[in-house]
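pinned: reference chain
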Amino acid sequence: MSITYLEAIREAQSLALEKYDDVFIYGQDIGSFGGAFKSTKGLYDEFPERVIDSPISEDAMVGLAVGAAIEGMRPVIEMQFADFSSVGFNQIVNQAATLFWRTFLPCPITIRLPSGGTPGSGPFHSQCMETIYAHYPGTIVMAPSTVEDAYSMLLDAISIDDPVIFCEHKYLYYHLKAEKLPKKTLHASKARIVRPGRHATIVTYSAMVHEAVSAAEKLSKDGYEIEIVDGVDFKAAKYFDITANNWKLDKLVPSVLEASKLCKTINHLDS
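pinned: its structure tokens
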């Protein structure tokens, strides 16, 4: 029995709700209706107090998630379409993404974005927002290209103590299938060579991995072997690891002078 990309996302959420009491899902029509794409179908019946319908206000949705994260919860936000995440943009990039650097409090929220164009989607339901969020410090952006990655990376996203923008290409929801889900989750922070090659390398992600592989197979008939690399996720949330540099949180910014020195250190590390 095969499982679709969309079903893998539902199963990952179900497992997270089952294993972790601090996880809840919040979004528009995700309760008894099961969400715009049915990615939460049946979860409200199993976890009625932790699968919660939200108002039609993406700004308020993310704001609630940030507050819940501060109080120790791990919210999973479902936007109906990636396009509408721009309504909550301020909360995402100015609140969630910067929270750790302002307070040293983690912000473990996952924002699921059904992304990309499909026939009939129109201009307000077809955008890919991942590259925008990838430019903002403090966020992690994931864009799984396989059923297995959709499952394991979503579980990984929920466990991370930083805000994750989880981009799901809608074309993959029903067109991509796997025989089974992975028993052992894959680490999301490493790129993967999907197809070996020696003449050129294409680095891509999400649905374009499959398009790139298809193009590479055609070029192979003409004698060109193209390497395809799945980027999987875009970047880590933190510029540096405090513990790796032996910095103590209680002594990190004891004064304006020390803060100035720290900024110079960060600039040096970043360069």
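why pinned: The mean pLDDT is 85. Residues 239-271 form one domain.
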